[in-house]
Amino acid sequence: MSSPVTRRNALGRLMAGAAFVAAPAMTGRVWAAAPPGVRLTDGTLTIDFDTAMRSRLFHKDKAITNSAAGEALTLADGPAIDRFLLLEHKEEAVSGAHGTGHRHILRSAAGGTLEQETAITFFDRYPGLAIYEVRFRNTGAKPLTVAGWRVATHDLLDHPDGAWSFAGASYPDRRDWVQKVAPGFEQHNFMGMNGSDYGGGTPVAVVWRRDVGLAVGHVETVPRLVSLPVAAQPGGTRLGLSGDGAKALAPGEMLTLPTAFVMAHEGDHFRPLDTYRQIMAERGLAAPRIPESSYGPIWCAWGYERKFTPEQIYGTLPKAKELGFEWAVIDDGWQIAEGNWDVDRTRFPRGDADMKAFADRIKADGMRPRLWLAPLAVDPGTPLLRDHPDMLILDRDGAAQNVSWWSAFTMCPAYQPTVDYFRGVVRKIVGEWGFDGLKLDGQHLNGVAPCYNPAHNHARPEESFEKLQDFWKAIYDEVMTINPEAIVEICPCGDSFAFHNIPAMNNTPAADPTSSWQVRLKGKTFKALMGPSAPFSGDHVEMTDTRDDFASTYGIGAIPSTKFTWPEDTPNPTDPLPPGGFKLTAQKEVLWRKWIDLYRANMLAKGNYLGGLYDIGFDKPESHAIEKDGALHYAFFADTWDGPLSLRGLGDGGYTLVDSFTGASLGTATRARSTIPAKFERFLLVRAIPAQGGKA
């Protein structure tokens, strides 16, 4: 804490810096002496505020940031107002959806024009986390035009080993969600559209060092058009929550910012995301019940691409069933066009009758049928667009929002006719044709632009973005009404998944991973956001680095998926096939069968993913652990490794160690003797089985 002299000097600088804010309004007003700063703590996270409302964060009494103005308001005609005189501090006990805790209310002012009220709440069940509720009030005699704001913005101090980051924003380049913070690193992480059809995400940013991390996000139950910028700074990495956009604030009017949180933690991004999931569930947003069938291995017909024939799929089904796959996913190409969801009669001459027969045939072959659909995309020239141009999202200039992948336009999810139309489409697919699930696909599913279409009568243009989650929930509820055991999969190709859509899905894929690394980091992220037993699939194994990396799927506790063709490759591929194509050769069949048998034997997707045991950034080799039926399953990944491995999380007694993939014995271990020597290439899977009698 600062000394009295330092505080007086700081107060003098504060008042000098704040004088530009309508200082004459202070005439005749008597200000009480400012409190000498306050210290707020739950024992894990400590927040020190000085008299100028500059704050510094501590984790278990160790400073992890410098003192800075974490909260600020920017006016259209001036710089950021980030110096406030602390006037009052009150503390009160609270109890509610997040349990018991303590709320601290800090009131401060900048000149006679602006007042800030900051309520910070610690909850007993979430040590290290603080909820921020910040409001600004215009106390002057003239309107203020707010251009932007920030809250909970701090620089996590540098560490000699560097730092890693997680960011929940979506970008057209489909970048990694987890990245190392290098000099010059900067990512704005806008939660709206960062491309014509890439946007939305999870409103959390995390930066962590080897010893401690800092997470920031908002806990609103609707998505907000905010940013969570992460940027390397001299001496640290900055992160926080911010917003922009002009807003007039009349005298006496209050501006309430989105409810934010700050969390100091140990380990990588898993713990703060897992805590965020629990907080949001208590606020009413949680993953739905997961049907047993959601964990079935997946064969997808996408290997045959859009020009598939029913005969190709019928010919592959027996082989897929024989190998242990349970789902047959019919991908893009069954329809006439995006936005014309009638059956393509060049493949299905009898239309609806043939589609029903198609689903029935898949079931007769002992598999479950799932059908691809790209809601909200409508192609130019389709009858839907011709007859219902009112359904489109339009910008300020009346232009439509593009879906680049299909050269389509985006329909407004907050317009009731759009909702009703797609409810009718899924009623036909699930209720009439008899498909047991939907694969909802496309990067445009994750977020949409603000809508200015006058036909929609939106209260605010942002309603289209905010109500996207309601659109998906309407689709999900329609499906569940028909078939409560159906699968609703949302695949926002390459986006950083929008958390607010999670209540509308009971299955999710890695969504077009660009590498095996993405399969694993997405898996770890989803196990935090949906729960440790979340039904996450690795997407087609053919998309991994080696096109056969089932180990990354298995090791993260994901569901295996493939798009193999059999007995031949597709004869007319849209793009050149990779070396070896997608044909299931005799050699591949042996490997595919082994991995599916291993998955079905252990069902790690249903296990308890122990995401807090290992740090995906700093621990080498990269390590993951899952508890299932009393055994611990470890997965280690590296190009090559020759050295010790740490088996964390072992309980009392001894364990017998087995290589899960080869069946070879790897010796024994105990909690006190949990490091083993290892040499491997690409991966090593270790199963630690509790020894009978507690000794190994």
Radius of gyration: 27 Å
**Low-confidence runs (pLDDT<50, min 5 residues)?**
1-32
Distance between the termini: 54 Å
Largest sheet: 10 strands, antiparallel
Give the strand tally.
39
> Mean pLDDT, nearest integer?
94
Q: Level of helix content?
A: 10-25%
Task: Note the overall shape.
Answer: globular
| β-strand amount | 25-35%
Number of helices: 11
Q: Which structural class best describes the helix and strand composition?
A: alpha+beta
Write up what this structure looks like.
The chain has 696 residues and is α+β, with helices and mostly antiparallel strands. The strands form 8 sheets. Strands 7, 8, 9, 10, 12, 13, 15, 16, 19 and 20 form a 10-stranded antiparallel beta sheet that branches. A 6-stranded antiparallel beta sheet has the order 6-5-11-18-17-14, with no helix packed on it. Strands 30-29-25-22-21-33 form a 6-stranded parallel beta sheet. A hairpin with a 5-residue loop joins strand 2 and strand 3. The model is unreliable at 1-32 (pLDDT under 50).
